[in-house]
Write a structure and sequence with these properties.
Elements lengths: L6 H11 L3 H10 L2 E4 L10 E4 L5 E6 L8 H13 L4 E4 L6 H11 L4 E3 L1 H11 L9 H14 L3 E4 L8 H6 L9 H13 L4 H4 L1 H10 L3 E4 L14 H19 L3 E6 L8 H11 L5 E4 L11 H14 L4 E3 L12 H22 L4 H13 L3 H7 L3 H8 L17 H4 L3
Parallel strand pairs: 3-4, 3-10, 4-5, 5-6, 6-7, 7-8, 8-9, 9-10
Antiparallel strand pairs: 1-2
Length: about 425
């Protein structure tokens, strides 16, 4: 069965990437490229993710039970678009979650992702119930509502199955299950002694996804949440199942990408990317970080950018940003700015290594502008022109001066 994607979206992605529609179509049919856009989100720009395309970045946002500020979350959407992010994900768990999701979708002209199980569990909590009271019908009803409202890609933790339970018990992790969706389903499965409903009813989920031309992001419910737990048996067990689910999605004509770790030491990152690409048959790889050390709270945007650059240069396709607030608190608007820029730097550095998307030409242009002391061009070509102009403004009026070297500037002395 051919993969369900709109023909006009293939043309738009091809134009955006500077590639032919035939290249994009072939990648979609093979499952090595996905195009993120729900047919209901007509005002969104379709974004291609996968082999041969520019490395994309995602911006997480959303309320929590302790902090509900819809205006702040919508400001984050606008900042994401302004600073060149490719997608946003609404991970809200507090306040009127549905209303905020609708507002985010209306505001966003880039694809929007969600994790529907969050809303399903929060609905139960409002009635004094727990995740173990979740039913297949209540979960799938929320999923349908997300698709119908225009959500472009959904994280669904289908790979955490009953066969993983003894694996989890056999090797106790330092930080346990750190995925919220994974923890909800693990608790539900142990209490109800039944299979994960997202896995048991996966065919129904695929039919629904195909109907909206949307994409499944197969979540890493067992991703490592600390360096001590990296590349362990639980993570690999889930990845084996995700490979099976990728094949089943392709057989049903549904786009699917795979989410990955997590906290991984830098020397293990290339092996993790290779493992995903092999076991999941070249499916686009969407990584959180990876975070290469646990020792830098308040600087995890830098930790993540280091891991992201290594992962993307090794073949990962999609980076989920991390902010300085990771593991500490809900990010504010400045945290979001720093997270976006750090992630964009990582993606761009990887694209230079992969020879993708004119990344090297961008660096050449900005280097030529520096050589010519064309500061305005340097600013306009930079990833954060506003901050670059602010820094440059401290120098004064001399157009051929910066306070690093002053009169001893090597490029000014050697005008060659």
């Amino acid at each position: 069965m051919s993969i369900s994607v709109m023909a006009e979206d293939i043309k738009r992605v091809a134009a955006d990437e500077g590639l032919t529609p035939e290249f994009i179509r072939e990648g979609v049919d093979r499952g090595t490229i996905v195009i993120l856009r729900n047919k209901q989100h007509a005002w969104a720009k379709p974004v291609g993710v996968g082999r041969g395309l520019r490395t994309k970045i995602n911006v997480n946002l959303g309320s929590s039970p302790d902090m509900v500020d819809s205006d702040l979350e919508l400001a984050k959407v606008r900042m994401a678009m302004e600073l060149g992010a490719d997608t946003v994900m609404d991970l809200s768990t507090g306040g009127d979650i549905r209303s905020l999701r609708i507002s985010v979708l209306k505001e966003s002209h880039i694809p929007v992702g969600t994790v529907p199980i969050y809303e399903a569990v929060c609905k139960l909590a409002q009635d004094g119930k727990s995740p173990v009271d979740l039913t297949k019908d209540s979960l799938f009803s929320v999923i349908r509502d997300h698709f119908e409202s225009g959500v472009d890609f959904l994280t669904v933790h289908c790979g955490l199955t009953s066969r993983a339970l003894p694996v989890i018990e056999r090797r106790k992790r330092t930080t346990g299950i750190v995925s919220r969706g994974g923890s909800f389903l693990h608790k539900w499965m142990k209490h109800n002694r039944r299979e994960n409903p997202l896995y048991e009813h996966y065919d129904e989920l695929l039919d629904m996804t195909r109907e909206y031309h949307a994409t499944l992001s197969l979540g890493d419910g067992l991703r490592p949440g600390s360096i001590a737990d990296s590349t362990d048996s639980s993570q690999v067990e889930e990845l084996l199942v995700l490979g099976e689910l990728v094949d089943r999605a392709r057989d049903k004509g549904v786009q699917a990408m795979v989410e990955g770790p997590g906290h991984i030491p830098i020397h293990e990152i290339p092996a993790n990317v290779l493992l995903e690409k092999k076991l999941c048959h070249g499916a686009p790889f969407y990584v959180l970080g990876p975070l290469v050390t646990d020792s830098a709270p308040a600087y995890d945007h830098i930790v993540s950018a280091i891991g992201g650059a290594v992962a993307a240069s090794a073949g990962a396709d999609f980076l989920c940003y991390v902010t300085p607030s990771e593991h500490l608190c809900l990010p504010d608007i400045e945290d979001v700015r720093q997270g976006i820029i750090a992630s964009r730097i990582a993606a761009h550095a990887a694209d230079i290594a992969k020879g993708i998307g004119g990344a090297e030409k961008q660096d050449l242009l900005i280097s030529q502008a520096r050589k010519n002391f064309d500061w305005e061009k340097v600013m306009s070509l930079s990833m954060d022109p506003e901050r670059a102009r602010r820094k440059r403004g401290k120098v004064g009026s001399d157009s051929q001066k910066c306070t690093m070297c002053g009169q001893f500037c090597a490029m000014r002395e050697n005008m060659i």
